[in-house]
Every structure is written in structure tokens, then in C-alpha cells.
């Protein structure tokens, strides 16, 4: 089968389309892949900058959507089902073997492209807001990187929880993407968004900040928190890992909360089914509608990664592996 293999830690340029043997099913769900998500962990993996450092060569790709070829007993899906799945590696290939507990049916009416960007982003958003952020109906959430895959997912999950959502983005085009995803207001990161957030909340600040960017965004976000607010640390797309003087947390009665969905579900796998149920309910109510950005053919994955790296991407960037 075809697979995109990373042969050198040179970023996107280290990828090569190769022929490799199909995976053995074993106790996994064997999936004929139609579309695969392109994520920030994929980009970091190609540079050797992710916390997991698999030996070369390996096939990147953390999430896929396709059709089940075979499934073990008790998997919850069966041959012929349209499914989406999460896996740490191996998704950028014609066929994958995915964990049964991380494989879910695609809701009616969704495209394979939409499903390919769902599991990681929406499970992360739900875990961040509910399990770690203790979000309550009526609270206000501030979302950074709000036009990207995680950002648009967070907007929708927050809206589904009854929250008001403010978005911070880098351009007016991205502001429109965030508003379309459900944000009540969108502010440009190039402007004085801290003052705008304060004004939009009557000077009180926000209850929850979703921050996948880090760096200066993190520092400024602390100024936006209301009393007992929670700043959710999801990643460092901006490149700098910030530090915080804990006296600022004490004086303002605020929390800085770490969010690592992937690591947590390895320790507590039962959480996956719980989150999947919550997301299915939000989908039924019309809150969860994945925002698909650019779609590239499998062989152009390097260009897809460059779109992420340049911060040009909106919605979820997806690879088309075969016609569904």
C-alpha cells in the first residue's frame, strides 16, 4: 500500500511516498482510509520537536476517516461502517489499524473530510473545557487560534455548553471563520485585544481562556481572567513556552491548568467513551459541525504541513487518500 514516510527530521521535506506492507489487523480495527487529518503534532513530529520521538522511518498521521474492512468482536463498529479514528502514528496511508476504543462511527451527513479532523480536536476541546476547565453555562470563554481546527472545535463545544465565546485571531479573514463557527465576537491579535476583551465583559474578564499558542499570548491572557478564572494551557504553537510568576495567580485567585488529552486517556481510557457520548449529543443538537479548511491529495502532505507552519491555515487541514 501507499504510505507517506518520514525519512529525515527535516520538517515537511523529510517526507517520502513509499510502498509498505499493509498492517496486520490483530485486535485492532482495520480501516481503508479515505481522508486523514493534518495536525500540529504531525508538524512537530517531522521536526523531531514532539514529546514522542519514534525511530525513523515512520508514517505520521494521528487521525483518519474511512471504511472499516474488519473489526474485532466487541469493537462497537463492524465491516462496512463509515468511521473516524485517532492513532498516534500511521494515519497517512491507504490502510490503518486503529484502536477499537478510539474508533467511532461518523454521524449521518458528515463527509469523510469533516470526520478526519474531528476526534483529536473535539475530544481535546471537550476535555479541556469540561474536565479541566470546569466550564459552566453562562460563563465566558476566550479562544486563541480560534480559526484553526482546535479553535473552531472549542468555539462549538463551548457554545454547546451554554457559554459566551470571544475569539482572538490574526486576520480579518480568520475572524470571519471564527464568527461562522459560532464566536460571539472576534478580535485581532495585532490590536489591543486585551482592552477589547475587558470592554466586552464589562471590565470583569473571562472565566476560561483556551490557549494553544503560548508565548506572549499566555502572558497577556492572564490579564484577561475574571476572579476564579482558568487559563487552559493546550500547546505552544507560537514557539515559546511561557513562565508565570505564581504571585499573580495568588493575587487574582486564578488557575493555570494543563491540558494533555492524549496523555490522560492513556491513563483513563474510559473517558474516551464519555466524551464521545457528549459530543454525539452536541452533534445531534447542531453544535458540532467540523470546519474543513484546505484539502490536499496525500502526496502533497508536505505542502499541507507548510500551511500549518506558516499559520495560514483555517479550519482543519485534511489529506484526501482515496475517493470515498
From TrEMBL:
Pfam families hit by this protein: ADH_N, ADH_zinc_N
UniProt cross-references to Gene3D superfamilies, sorted A to Z: Medium-chain alcohol dehydrogenases, catalytic domain, NAD(P)-binding Rossmann-like Domain
Domain Enoyl reductase (ER): 11-319
PANTHER family named among the record's database cross-references: QUINONE OXIDOREDUCTASE-LIKE PROTEIN 2, SHORT-CHAIN DEHYDROGENASE/REDUCTASE
Name this polypeptide is given: NADPH:quinone oxidoreductase family protein
UniProt organism field: Archangium lansingense
Amino acid at each position: 500500500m501507499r504510505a507517506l514516510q518520514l525519512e529525515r527530521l527535516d520538517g515537511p521535506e523529510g517526507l517520502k511516498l513509499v510502498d509498505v506492507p499493509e498492517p496486520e489487523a490483530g485486535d485492532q480495527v482495520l480501516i481503508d482510509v479515505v481522508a486523514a487529518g493534518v495536525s500540529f503534532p504531525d508538524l512537530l513530529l517531522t521536526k523531531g520537536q514532539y514529546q514522542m520521538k519514534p525511530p525513523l522511518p515512520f508514517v505520521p498521521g494521528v487521525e483518519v476517516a474511512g471504511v472499516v474492512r474488519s473489526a474485532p468482536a466487541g469493537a462497537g463498529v463492524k465491516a462496512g461502517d463509515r468511521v473516524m479514528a485517532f492513532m498516534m502514528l500511521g494515519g497517512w496511508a491507504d490502510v490503518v489499524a486503529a484502536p477499537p476504543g478510539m474508533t467511532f462511527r461518523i454521524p449521518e451527513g458528515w463527509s469523510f473530510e469533516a470526520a478526519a479532523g474531528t476526534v483529536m480536536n473535539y475530544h481535546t476541546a471537550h476535555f479541556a473545557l469540561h474536565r479541566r476547565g470546569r466550564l459552566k453555562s453562562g460563563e465566558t470563554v476566550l479562544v486563541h487560534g480560534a480559526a484553526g481546527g482546535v479553535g473552531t472545535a472549542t468555539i462549538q463545544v463551548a457554545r454547546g455548553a451554554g457559554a459566551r465565546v470571544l475569539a482572538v485571531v490574526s486576520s480579518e479573514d480568520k475572524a470571519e471563520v471564527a464568527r461562522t463557527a459560532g464566536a460571539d465576537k472576534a478580535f485581532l491579535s495585532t490590536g489591543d485585544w486585551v482592552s477589547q476583551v475587558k470592554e466586552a465583559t464589562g471590565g470583569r474578564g473571562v472565566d476560561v481562556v483556551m490557549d494553544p499558542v503560548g508565548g506572549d499570548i499566555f502572558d497577556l491572557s492572564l490579564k484577561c481572567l475574571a476572579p476564579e478564572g482558568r487559563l487552559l494551557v493546550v500547546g505552544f504553537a507560537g514557539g515559546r513556552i511561557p513562565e508565570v510568576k505564581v504571585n499573580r495567580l495568588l493575587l487574582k485567585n486564578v488557575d493555570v491548568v494543563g491540558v494533555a488529552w492524549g496523555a490522560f486517556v492513556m491513563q483513563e481510557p474510559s473517558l474516551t467513551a464519555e466524551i464521545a457520548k457528549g459530543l454525539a449529543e452536541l452533534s445531534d443538537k447542531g453544535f458540532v459541525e467540523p470546519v474543513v479548511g484546505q484539502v490536499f491529495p496525500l502526496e502533497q502532505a508536505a505542502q499541507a504541513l507548510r500551511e500549518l507552519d506558516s499559520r495560514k491555515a483555517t479550519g482543519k487541514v485534511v489529506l484526501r487518500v482515496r475517493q470515498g
